[in-house]
Amino acid sequence: MVAVSGKGCGGKRHNSGRKSKLINELRKRAAIAVNWTGQTPAEFYQELMQNNDAPVALRLAAAQAASPLVHQKQPLAVDATLSGNIPTQITILTTLDNDDA
């Protein structure tokens, strides 16, 4: 099979490799903010994103770091317990075999 350029023949992948030092530094600072101010990491990132004096690269990195905290995946299992007075009706159907008819 002949390899065609741009069809997944190896090479660098988007978002692969080591993460940015800026995001790692933000995560460290968020942990410090939680210890010193009582803020949650999501609140720290939100405050940083809304700071107009911060550089744009830092604000974008804060948004990227906050994304998993704000937009979490929904659980796969749902607890569907019923409570209260819920009427139930069970109908039993019987069939006759051909031998009985």
Model description:
With 101 residues, the protein is mostly helical. It has a domain of 50 residues. Helices cover 41% and strands 0% of the residues. It has three helices and no strands. Helix 1 crosses helix 2. The protein is elongated, with a radius of gyration of 28 Å. It starts with 20 loop residues before the first helix and ends in a 31-residue tail after the last helix. 9% of the residues are buried.
Map the helices and strands.
Elements (H helix, E strand, L loop, with lengths): L20 H17 L3 H9 L6 H15 L31
Mean pLDDT: 75
Instruction: Please outline the major beta sheet.
Output: none
| CA distance, first residue to last residue | 68 Å
Backbone CA Rg? 28 Å
Find the structural class using helix and strand composition. mainly alpha
Query: What is the overall number of helices?
Result: 3
Q: Let me know the number of strands.
A: 0
Give the helix proportion (percent range). 40-55%
Q: Which parts are unreliable, with pLDDT below 50 for 5 consecutive residues or more?
A: none
Shape, per Cα inertia axes: elongated
Features:
101 residues, mainly alpha, 3 helices
Summarize the structure.
This protein is an all-alpha fold.
